[in-house]
Amino acid sequence: MSEARANRFQRRRGETRRALVHAARQVLAESDDTGVSIRSLAERADVGLGSFYNHFPSKRDLFDAAVADVLEEYAHAVEGHLCGLDDPAERIAAGVRFSARVAGASPQIMRILCNSGLGRIHAGRGPLVRCAHRDMERGIASGRFAVADPVIAVSALNASLLALLELWSTRPEIDSDRAARAMAEMLLHMLGLPEAEAREVAWRPLDGAA
Amino acid sequence: MSEARANRFQRRRGETRRALVHAARQVLAESDDTGVSIRSLAERADVGLGSFYNHFPSKRDLFDAAVADVLEEYAHAVEGHLCGLDDPAERIAAGVRFSARVAGASPQIMRILCNSGLGRIHAGRGPLVRCAHRDMERGIASGRFAVADPVIAVSALNASLLALLELWSTRPEIDSDRAARAMAEMLLHMLGLPEAEAREVAWRPLDGAA
DNA sequence: ATTATCTATAGATCTATAGATAATGC
DNA sequence: ATTATCTATAGATCTATAGATAATGC
C-alpha cells in the first residue's frame, strides 16, 4: 500500500534508505565493526554524506535498522516454510532445519544473526521468539511437551539454534542438514518427546526441494 | 613465579596494563561499545595516552585481552567449585548452577559473557568449552549420556547456559538458582538421562554456602 | 513551491609518535 | 644506563551542518 501509492519522490527516498541499510548489512556481516565512519557507510552506499542525516539521526540507528531488517527477512523466509505445519514438535524441528537452509542460502544473514547474538533476539525483537513461544505453549497444552518452565525452554531452543549456525560458520565442512537434524532430535527429546518419536519427527522429509 | 620474582619495574608495568584491562572491562560491561577512543580508555584507566602503546598495539588487542581476562576469571571461579565432582552429569548441572552464582556475584562478568556472545566461546577460546567437551566424552564413554553428536551437544549446552544468563540479565526478578536447576534438568534429560534421574541430579544440594 | 540530494567545510575529535621526565637496576 | 611513563603535538580523520543543485508535484 504505502509502497504502491508512493510517488516518485518517496520511492527515490526509499532507495537511498535501502542503500544505506544494505551497506550497513555488509559491514555487520564482514567485520561486525560498528565503529566504521558514517562517511564510509555513505560511500559504500554510493550516497552523499549529507543524505545519511536525512534518514538516520546516528550510526547506531542505522545499524539497529539493519539488524531489524535481517531478522525480518530471516523470519519471513523460515515462517513461509512453516505455515503448512501444525504439530508444534514438527514446527520446531522444521524451524531448525529451515534456518540451516536459509543460512546456507545467505551467508550474510547467517553471519549477522551470529554476530548480533542472543541479546537482541531475547529482547523479544526477533519474531523468532514470539513464534517459538506460541509453539511451546501449544505443545505443552496438548501434552506433547513436558517442560518445567516454558520461558527457559524457549531460551534453550533459540540459543541452541544460534549455536548451530555459529558452529557451521566456523566449520563449513559440516553437513548442515545432518547437523540440524541431530540438533532438532536432541531438542525435541529435551522437550519431552520419547527418543524414538523425537528421531522420527526430526528425520521427516521437509517440504520444498530437498 | 613470574609475579613473585618480578622487580619493581615489572610490577609497575603490570599495574598499568591491569588498569587498562580494567577500564576495557568496564566499557564492555557498560555499553559494549568498542568504538570508544583509546584516549578515553587511557583516561578511564588514569594512565597517560602514550602508555597505551607500551602495552597494546591497537584497541582491538586491548578488548581481546579484556575478554580473555573475563573468561579466565569466570572459568577459574566455576572450576574451583567443580574439582571435587566426578560424575559428568553432576559436573554439568553444577557448572550451570555455579555459573548463575558467579553471574549473581559479579554482574560485570555476566554482562561481558553475554555481550561477547557465542562466537569467542565457540572458537575454543574459553576453557568452558574444553571442560564441557571432556565431561561430554566421559559421559558418553560411561554410557551415562546418549547423544548422536558430542560436538553439537556441547554447542547446545554452552549456548543454553549463556541464554540463561542473558535471560536473567534482562529479567532480574527471576530466581536464578531455580532457573538454573530447571535449565540443568532439561539439559541432562536432553543428554539422555531419564527424567527422574535428571531431576534428582539437578536438585542435589551444592557444596559451599547455600 | 517543495523536497531530497549533493558538495564543501568548520570545528572537534582521534591516532600515533617524538621527546622529556621520573623511577629503578646494577 | 635502562626503562616506563608522561606531555605535547602533527597530521589525519570524522561529525554535523549550511547552502547549492536537481528532481518532482501541483
User: What name does the CATH topology of the largest domain in chain A carry?
Assistant: Tetracycline Repressor, domain 2
Please compute the radius of gyration of chain A using only Cα atoms. Answer: 19 Å
Number of domain modules of chain A: 2
Average of per-residue pLDDT values of chain A: 91
Q: How far is it from the N-terminal to the C-terminal residue of chain A, by CA?
A: 35 Å
- Main sheet of chain A? none
Query: How many helices of chain A does DSSP assign?
Result: 10
Largest interface: A-B, 36 and 36 residues
Helix content of chain A: over 70%
In CATH, the homologous superfamily of the largest domain in chain A goes by the name Tetracycline Repressor, domain 2
Element pattern of chain A in H and E: HHHHHHHHHH
CATH architecture of the largest domain in chain A: Orthogonal Bundle
Low-confidence stretches of chain A: 1-5
Q: What is the oligomeric state here?
A: homodimer
Report the count of strand segments of chain A.
Answer: 0
* CA-based shape of chain A: elongated
Highest-level CATH class of the largest domain in chain A: Mainly Alpha
Residue share in β-strands of chain A: under 5%
| Class by SSE composition of chain A | mainly alpha
Polypeptide structure, described:
Two copies of one chain form a homodimer. Chain A has 210 residues and is mostly helical. The first copy, chain A, folds into two domains: 1-56, Orthogonal Bundle (Arc Repressor Mutant, subunit A); 64-202, Tetracycline Repressor, domain 2 (Orthogonal Bundle). Helices cover 74% and strands 0% of the residues of chain A. Chain A has ten helices and no strands. Chain A has helices at 8-30, 38-44, 49-55, 59-82, 88-105, 107-122, 127-141, 150-170, 176-190, 195-203. In chain A, helix 5 (88-105) packs across helix 6 (107-122), helix 5 packs antiparallel against helix 7 and helix 6 runs antiparallel to helix 8 (150-170). Chain A starts with 7 loop residues before the first helix and ends in a 7-residue tail after the last helix. The model of chain A is unreliable at 1-5 (pLDDT under 50). The interface between A and B is large, with 36 and 36 residues. Chain A binds a DNA duplex (26 and 26 nucleotides) through helix 1 and helix 3.
